[in-house]
Design brief:
heterodimer; A: 312 residues; alpha/beta; Rossmann fold; 2 domains; 6-stranded mixed beta sheet; 4-stranded antiparallel beta sheet; 11 helices; 14 strands; 29% strand; elongated; B: 163 residues; mainly alpha; Arc Repressor Mutant, subunit A; two-stranded antiparallel ribbon; 2 strands
Chain lengths: 312, 163
């Protein structure tokens, strides 16, 4: 099952496309990270999936084909918006009350015991809680709805390192205990390296690369060798990003296991951050690569004819 | 997802607590699951873990390190694949075998000869970093010549072929 599936999805604000031709399928059971610079379209995609905005083009479904924004979809998806907005003058207890009455399903007991474990007083006004506590309160409200998909938009931007760690541990615990799928966005790559096992790279309103982190890392290498030969190999290899000195060149290449390392060159594995940076520095790279297409097909085991067309 | 859920509901015996705890080195560049695998192997070599010991429960590792549960499962699956650990349904993952260790008397001999070699290196003017660099390089060559075992000795595997 795919927790989010978009096909030709676009959203325009005035004459500007915030998201364009977005075709992606995020499978269940993962922590999927939406990574990209500011203005890449991450929040727009999440808002469309959560049903907070309507598409200008294409369509998006969640949790195995439920149209985004439909009651069926809303029941299964919990969304924590950027900076965890809260009614500052309401107490934590009032926030629970409010959320319970605005949703068809709300596990009051779970919410109260979780806040108890976290040492968040129910009487305290939300605005008087620390940043970490506010984030945990927002997460508690989301999890108490017992969602199948938890969507977090820049969840940790405002948090200090300890609060970040605790917040992420809470999210991972929910995943381990209840099998919740997670989709989160961030432009801080380092904080995702430990948690994300599915990566969607976005740039300028488009999806540049998508796939399981292990597969992406296994299919990319950094080749280091003489700069004089770099051009010759660049023709044969799928070079994502090249850095050259006068004598030595570094090529980040997409390879298959059968591709031999050219003689005189050294291959190094790449990390998630290095890989993402290479793609983000070359916004055109995805178009030349078979990657996203392959990941997209594989993510759809029961492919229907309607979705076989690939954008571009 | 196949996770040992429900375990926390049963009474936790003192014996069910794992003798080891994991830590992560974010700067090492080694994938998280491999770091967990290496730490188990290391603990086995040093005797912190014995056959029959329980590995930390997935939930506990996730809570302590704030990592993806799939990562822990992958590490445990890897250890199972190596025959070092085995999952018991509803209970957790347990150490099944120990890593072959060189008998202690031989270890003493090897230690002494290494001491002698280090003294030679020192006399020749190698400092500590030089010794490590030389040793790592020879180690890699040695296992490469033996065929495909380099990742055992050079655990970080920072240079590996594409194949």
């Amino acid at each position: 099952m795919n927790v989010i599936e978009a096909s030709g999805l676009g959203r325009r604000y005035g004459s500007t496309w915030a998201l364009r031709d977005c075709t992606v399928a995020i499978p269940a059971g993962h922590v999927a990270a939406l990574v990209g610079p500011n203005g890449a379209g991450k929040t727009t995609l999440l808002n469309l999936a959560a049903g907070l905005a309507a598409p200008s083009a294409g369509d998006v479904t969640v949790l195995g084909g439920r149209p985004a924004g439909s009651p069926m979809a809303l029941d299964g998806i919990a969304f924590v918006a950027q900076d965890t907005p809260m009614y500052k003058n309401l107490s934590a207890r009032d926030m629970l009350h409010l959320t319970r009455n605005l949703n068809r399903r709300f596990d009051q007991q779970y919410a109260e015991s979780r806040l108890g474990e976290l040492g968040i007083p129910l009487k305290r006004k939300a605005g008087k809680l620390s940043g970490g506590q506010q984030a945990q309160l927002a997460l508690t409200l989301a999890l108490a709805r017992r969602p199948r998909l938890l969507v977090l938009d820049e969840p940790m931007a405002m948090l200090d390192p300890v609060a970040r760690h605790d917040f992420m541990a809470s999210v991972m615990m929910a995943m381990a205990a209840d099998g919740v799928s997670v989709v989160l966005s961030s432009h801080v790559l380092a904080e995702l390296e430990r948690v994300a096992d599915y990566l969607i790279l976005m740039s300028r309103g488009r999806v540049q690369l998508a796939g399981e982190v292990d597969d992406l890392l296994a299919s990319h290498h950094l080749l280091t060798g003489p700069a004089a030969e770099a051009d010759r190999y660049a023709e044969r290899l799928n070079v994502v990003h090249a850095r050259r000195g006068e004598a030595q060149a570094h090529l980040l290449v997409r390879t298959t296991a059968d591709d031999p390392v050219p003689p005189g060159w050294e291959a190094h594995p790449v990390g998630l951050e290095e890989l993402a940076l290479a793609y983000l520095r070359e916004p055109a790279a995805a178009a030349a690569l078979p990657g996203p297409d392959r990941a997209w097909r594989r993510a759809l085991p029961s492919e229907t004819g309607r979705q076989t067309e690939v954008s571009k | 997802m196949d996770i040992d859920k429900g375990i926390s509901e049963e009474p936790r015996r003192a014996a069910g607590v794992s003798p080891i705890d994991f830590r992560l080195d974010p700067a090492s560049g080694v994938p998280t699951y491999l770091q967990l695998v290496h730490q188990v192997e290391h603990a086995l070599r040093l005797g912190y873990l014995q056959p029959g010991d329980q590995l930390p429960k997935v939930r506990d590792v996730v809570a302590a390190l704030a990592i993806n549960p799939n990562t822990v499962l992958k590490a445990y699956k890897d250890l199972e694949g190596k025959g070092l650990a085995a999952g018991r349904p509803g209970q957790g993952t347990f150490i099944q075998a120990t890593l072959s260790q060189v008998a202690l008397p031989e270890l003493g001999g090897l230690r002494r000869s290494l001491f002698g070699w280090l003294a030679d290196a020192d006399t020749a003017g190698l400092d500590e970093d030089g010794v490590v660099a030389l040793f790592t390089s020879v180690l890699r060559d040695f296992y490469k010549r033996r065929g495909g075992q380099a990742d055992r000795g050079v655990a970080s595997g920072e240079t590996e072929g594409v194949a």
